[in-house]
């Protein structure tokens, strides 16, 4: 059985640097969460069409895995690819909560692209694979590269590895679904005009642990947090002292206490 783990991510910091072509540009430290991941399996099966099992609540055409498969086909026109998925189905073991700011759907897409690249021996570079991933979602390129920690900028397509070990993290995902598009819409309407790129210059050079120990305000580290509070007011009930906010939410995280 061929399989791959699709890890969650947290945003140690997420700063909005601008807006163009319908997307916000960001500067963010993405960190892989070592102990939270989905698992994708390519299982031998005769399929009439591209088949995904394990994500019953997501219509196939909306699934990021399906969208990644389509994008890969369009980009490579590789008939082996088509052939392979007539004889294998994709089975997903979901563990990452959805609409949680943990990159669940995007990580599945990135892991799918990496595993397919390997099993179908695709003749394209990792950079090209990440570019294909960017057409599926803004944070898919990070998951294609699969760095433990990286500075991500642009819309999410510029991914530069940051040399540090992943931190032991505790994650708390309240029963509040935060729609990424809605949170970004709120940001654009209420906060975009107030961004101040000088206020976070050189953060990309600082180790994540030092940043979390030095800055205790989640709204300062993550520009989307005030927008998420406005978009999903119930989030406020779940805010806790010493916890930080990931992506467009709804998850909070903090450094795990030494066991
Ligand atoms: C917010 C972040 C931070 O890591 O992650 P999550 O919280 O979703 O995990 C990402 O930027 C989420 O990227 P992703 O989840 O791929 O968003 P997409 O589906 O590509 O975009 C959904 C919508 O959000 C808005 N959007 C997204 C990314 C971006 N850099 N600027 C935007 O304005 C756009 O309106 C877009 O149509
Ligand atoms: N493979 C997938 N796993 C989870 N959600 C998916 C997947 N494909 C598409 N989605 C859709 O993406 C939405 C956002 O989920 P997810 O990407 O996990 O959250 P976030 O963007 O907050 O990290 C879900 O509500 C779901 O409708």
Automatic annotation (TrEMBL):
InterPro entries on file: GHMP_kinase_C_sf, GHMP_kinase_N_dom, IspE, Ribosomal_Su5_D2-typ_SF, Ribsml_uS5_D2-typ_fold_subgr
Active site: 9, 139
Coiled coil: none
Pfam family of the protein (one): GHMP_kinases_N
Residues binding ATP: 97-107
UniProt-recorded Gene Ontology molecular function terms: 4-(cytidine 5'-diphospho)-2-C-methyl-D-erythritol kinase activity; ATP binding
Keyword vocabulary terms for this entry: ATP-binding, Isoprene biosynthesis, Kinase, Nucleotide-binding, Transferase
Domain GHMP kinase N-terminal: 63-145
Pathway: Isoprenoid biosynthesis; isopentenyl diphosphate biosynthesis via DXP pathway; isopentenyl diphosphate from 1-deoxy-D-xylulose 5-phosphate: step 3/6
GO biological process: isopentenyl diphosphate biosynthetic process, methylerythritol 4-phosphate pathway; terpenoid biosynthetic process
Catalytic activity entry: 4-CDP-2-C-methyl-D-erythritol + ATP = 4-CDP-2-C-methyl-D-erythritol 2-phosphate + ADP + H(+)
EC number: 2.7.1.148
Keyword set includes Nucleotide-binding: yes
Record family assignment: Belongs to the GHMP kinase family. IspE subfamily.
Job description of the protein: Catalyzes the phosphorylation of the position 2 hydroxy group of 4-diphosphocytidyl-2C-methyl-D-erythritol.
Protein known as: 4-diphosphocytidyl-2-C-methyl-D-erythritol kinase
Gene for this chain: ispE
